[in-house]
């Protein structure tokens, strides 16, 4: 009974225009998908199925879950072989940077995932097509789908094509630093305490929010600094704190 149900759910109709878009996306990225339905699912945000479409259109969350693990495995494997003289801590730092939302979202935009997204009306109107979190998640879903469709070797080649350049930037100290981690390490070593981030305020309309965050440690407050999301604001205020401490 389960197999029959799975086969039935697999028969999702792709309009010719959408099929052409998916094929063009694959051609541009120089990848091959046997199952275009699976590829299409990787671009379906939950907001689409949560509106009026129900379970007829599966979202990409399960593929994202799988892709996150595949991305981590491929990245860790490369770092392990590429940096043989480095300890686990250094490998973990670089890995955390290159698989972060800040790195993945621009990659997703660069390969055209923003144009492929299927969003609910509300998410579309609120600027979801340009949100870093949605783009990063969709890239991970693409990785998960490609792993299922083509296997380990093919997905490894795809992941390394865009992750290795980011790793090299970090290794050469040209990538974006994880200022929160640097500040935490500094604070723990110098003051035996951890920084505490505080959301001071939010400004702007719902579709274009600006978050203001300050950081407190050793009875000192730095900021606030702003960002398009809390994570960005926290990174910005951590950078400010470090620069102030270095003076």
Name the descriptors.
three-stranded antiparallel β-sheet; single chain; disordered N terminus; 247 residues; 3 strands; mainly alpha; 13 helices
Gross morphology:
flat
> Distance between termini?
69 Å
* SSE series: HHHHHHHHHHHHEEEH
Number of strands: 3
User: How many whole angstroms does the radius of gyration measure?
Assistant: 21 Å
Largest sheet: 3 strands, antiparallel
Low-confidence stretches: 1-10
Tell me the fraction of residues in β-strands, as a range.
5-15%
Question: What is the structural class?
Answer: mainly alpha
- Average pLDDT, all residues: 87
**Portion in helices:** 55-70%
For the largest sheet, list the strands in their spatial order.
1-2-3
Number of helices: 13
Overview of this protein structure:
It is a single chain. The chain has 247 residues and is mainly alpha-helical. It is built from 13 helices and three strands, in the order H-H-H-H-H-H-H-H-H-H-H-H-E-E-E-H. It has helices spanning 2-10, 16-29, 36-41, 46-53, 61-82, 88-98, 101-110, 113-116, 121-125, 132-150, 152-171, 179-191, 230-246, and strands spanning 196-203, 210-217, 220-227. It has a three-stranded antiparallel beta sheet, covered by helices on one side. Helix 6 crosses helix 11, helix 10 packs across helix 11 (152-171) and helix 12 crosses helix 13 (230-246). The longest helix has 22 residues, at 61-82. Residues 1-10 have low confidence and may be disordered.
